[in-house]
Design a protein that fits this description.
Layout lengths: L19 E8 L5 E6 L4 E6 L6 E3 L4 H14 L7 E3 L7 E9 L2 E8 L15 H13 L36
Parallel strand pairs: 5-7
Antiparallel strand pairs: 1-2, 1-6, 2-3, 3-4, 6-7
Helix pairs in contact: 1-2
Length: 175
């Protein structure tokens, strides 16, 4: 019996230095992850869609890349439309996926709509969920679980156990 040839024609074994991708999944009023792979730098990083600070992620292993390519193929992303938008919802969730590799170009985006579904939310087991699982394998967690590190607290010279009366700036019990 002959094996079915992968529609990605062996790209999962390509040198990852020739691959770039960008993935975002962001709430209009809440942020969310923007994840990038820059193959030339062998750098995987992410930031909040509305933030400026990039956070480095560990470089994916060959096994992670292989799983990514297999799931990407399963998602059917190569055949996705360029746009999935629900014109009846003006806020909510937007997403974007772009991947460039030798012999492969994918560019698809959406707003409250997803490939393979009429739902305004991604459904488990459907193509977009398979894509986010593939991305999650590379980053080591569900992409929506990526959170920016907390900002360091600023010490304004007031010991943490002293309450400050905001009406006049005086220390002491609040009345």
């Amino acid at each position: 019996m002959r094996k079915k040839k992968s529609s990605f024609s062996g790209i999962e074994s390509h040198d990852h230095s020739k691959v770039t991708f960008e993935f975002s999944h962001c709430a209009i009023f809440g942020g969310g992850p923007l994840i990038e792979w820059d193959g030339k730098k062998s750098e995987l990083r992410w930031k909040d869609c509305y933030g400026d600070a990039w956070n480095s992620l560990p470089t994916p292993s060959d096994l992670q890349w292989k799983a990514f390519w297999l799931l990407l193929e399963q998602s059917g992303a190569r055949n996705w439309d360029t746009d999935y938008s629900n014109p009846n919802i003006l806020d909510g969730i937007g997403w974007d996926f772009k991947l460039y590799a030798p012999g492969l170009r994918i560019a698809s985006t959406g707003s409250n709509a997803y490939p393979g579904s009429d739902s305004f939310e991604p459904l488990p087991g459907f193509p977009f969920d398979i894509l986010t699982t593939a991305i999650g394998i590379l980053v080591g967690c569900d992409p929506d679980d990526l959170k920016a590190p907390p900002h360091p607290q600023i010490n304004l010279g007031v010991p943490p156990d002293v309450e400050v009366d905001s009406r006049d700036g005086e220390e002491g019990p609040l009345l």
